[in-house]
Amino acid sequence: MSHTMMTRRQMLRAGLLGASSLLLPMRRAAAQSAMFAPFQVPLPIAPVLTPTSGGSPGKKGGSTGTDFYTITQQPADVQIIPGGPTTRIWGYNGLYPGPTIRAKRGRPVIVRHINNLPDPTVVHLHGAHTPPAYDGFPIDYVEPGQHFDYKYPNDDERGATYWYHDHAMDITAHHVYAGLAGFYILEDDAEATLPLPKPPYDIPLVFQDRSFYPDGSLYYDSFDSNGFLGDHFLVNGAITPVLQVSRRKYRFRLLNGSNSRVYVFGLDNGRPLTQIASDGGLLGAPVQRDTIAMAPAERTEVVIDFAAYPVGTRVVLMNYLEQDTGKYADVLNLGPGRPVMAFDVAYNLGRRETDTSSVPGVLRPVQRLREADAAVHRRFEFGRSNGAWVINGQLFDPERVDFRPRLGDTEVWELVNGSGGWVHPVHLHDLQWQILDRNGSPPAAHEAGFKDVFFLGANESVRVIGHFTGENCVGRYQFHCHNLEHEDMRMMSRWDVVR
Taking the CB of the first residue and of the last residue of the chain, which one, N or C, has fewer CB atoms within 10 A? Predict the structure, then answer.
């Protein structure tokens, strides 16, 4: 693992950014902007990765060994455009999105990442409680031709939907746009005892937007520092796909994997979605929601009961947000919407199959942290200064430690959007946090669980509380805007956990 640092602009100028050969910033007119007819292709579901080796599980999911995985980061040509040419992507194991890892709480995992790409890469397991050496600090590069073993203790408080993606300094946006993202689902025994839908009726869905040249290659503007928006909605790597479903309940794990696009999801028939979880796992109780706003990197889990629909019904998931630029995302400015994917109710349950799943009224109690126990209060303003994205007026310097939380302490952080009309989804590494208040008001029910991404709309502020734990979690971490173009323009801050 190397710490050599070259800025994004230096890489572009020197012609060393491998992704730039795929994603050249050319005139927008050259890109493929016409909409493809929706629902032409079935929804792909990423394969679940099999460990290359590992010990036997202990009682109740405990650990008597470690599961080992191997992932190769490599180019591949994949079919994305319906009936069109293939698209060159960079993928984990050459897949877009990458394979899903299903891990067990309390059972460690080691993932060997082999870099067969022309760029240095970094892997971040987003949302997990990970020691600093394996958290994916932006300059901890795995150089081309090299490998690194990322070690994940899986000692998080509860099961949750996480994801792994590239986190390399100044070029994260390029790499994620090229395809370097995949699901990491942490399961635990407490959740397993609930009657929620289980695989194959527990399905991860990653939403991304992409643009294409007529030859099928990806279009991306490398110099758009505000936030790049693609023309087409992709789900699990397919443009507006369709999933055939049975008349029963399904659990969907939604991930906004876009660089900067914000979505407001809803069903075209106006029926509510049942939210059961947020970034850090199950909520205390299910929440009925007509629409669900999701900023980049947020996760939301919902249950949809298709038993309410006769066979032959098509239910369409829509994005109702009117968003023309990565600068702004007014989640109250909703329009007629564009389709994202469809569910075709195709099967009745037969005599040999019944739906025994349900959504209990109590999911997983959330023990609230108390502000009175906070040893430190901090304030961070996400702003714009001389055309640059800054936190408390400063650009990120990986060698500068901006503050030092103490292991065992509880802290309150106030996250403030001081950049006018721009929006910022703020991702905090190391911990899952709880919202104390948003704009001075208690959190809504869907934000009352554990989270690691906090959407700051125009002029909004959010106060969050977290408790620093883990003897192995001492060292350097960061937080940043998860509009990836903002992140690449140094809207990050380093902080070190100390004893």
Answer: C
